[in-house]
Amino acid sequence: MPSHLRRTKQQNASSAIAFNKPFNVVCQFTPADEGECLADYIDFPNIYPAGRLDADSEGLLLLTDDGRLQHRITDPDSKQWKTYLAQVEGDITEDAIAMLRFGVEIQGEMTRPARARMVTEPEWLWDREPPIRERESIPTSWVEIQIHEGRNRQVRHMTAAVGFPTLRLIRSGIGPVRIDGLEPGEWRELTDYELKSLWKQAPVRSNRLFRGSRGRR
């Protein structure tokens, strides 16, 4: 059998799930010293996280039994855009959004250009337990950010670098996979379309195509 057909057969045999990680759950299957771990929610055998979410972040985590698919999802050169919703302290400005799109300096290195826009708080968003601490004198706002690299706590560092610290962070999408329909702690298997789309390398489009209407909480 030709090598490209063998590769397609192997890729299609990959198993992967989408999990909506709750706040304060660590991305490991072994018990955590504090809080819960993945084993408290997922009973799918022989799968491992493709990338991570910090314990204080929420939302979409992909897990798979295929090491090559893990690499495809996490490798910056695979062009898988990761979509985040960040609730930030203060009314974020157009200038700050422009800086996020251009790239900001984190620990002496510039981030790659991102897609960013102001949004309103999503209607589908669940309540976090415990809720964030809000101050009456300081408003909060929401920004949607898409990146295709994965530095440690990158989105939090990016919003802080432009003067708007992140209070709450939710990953809502990875490539074609969305968090839609999953409550915190729930998971589902990926569809064939989602798996094929994750395997397919797509070019990064200009962030100028990612401009939405301005909205605030």
Notes on the protein architecture:
- With 217 residues, the protein is of the alpha+beta class.
- It has 2 domains: 1-77 and 178-201, 2-Layer Sandwich (Alpha-Beta Plaits), CATH 3.30.70.580; 81-174, Alpha-L RNA-binding motif (Alpha-Beta Plaits), CATH 3.30.70.1560.
- Helices cover 20% and strands 27% of the residues.
- The chain has 5 helices and 13 strands.
- Strands 1, 4, 5, 6, 9, 10, 11, 12 and 13 form a 9-stranded mixed beta sheet that branches. A two-stranded parallel sheet has the order 2-3.
- The longest helix has 10 residues, at 3-12.
- 31% of the residues are buried.
In CATH, the homologous superfamily of the largest domain goes by the name Pseudouridine synthase I, catalytic domain, N-terminal subdomain
Structure classification: alpha+beta
Low-confidence stretches: 1-12, 202-217
N- to C-terminal distance: 57 Å
Based on Cα principal axes, name the global outline.
globular
- What is the count of structural domains? 2
- Would you report the number of β strands? 13
Q: Level of helix content?
A: 10-25%
- Rg is 18 Å
Secondary-structure element sequence?
HEEEEEHEHEEEEHEEEH
CATH topology of the largest domain: Alpha-Beta Plaits
Query: Overall mean pLDDT score?
Result: 86
What amount of the residues lies in strands?
Answer: 25-35%
Count the DSSP helices.
5
CATH architecture of the largest domain: 2-Layer Sandwich
The CATH top-level class label of the largest domain: Alpha Beta
What's the story with the biggest beta sheet? 9 strands, mixed
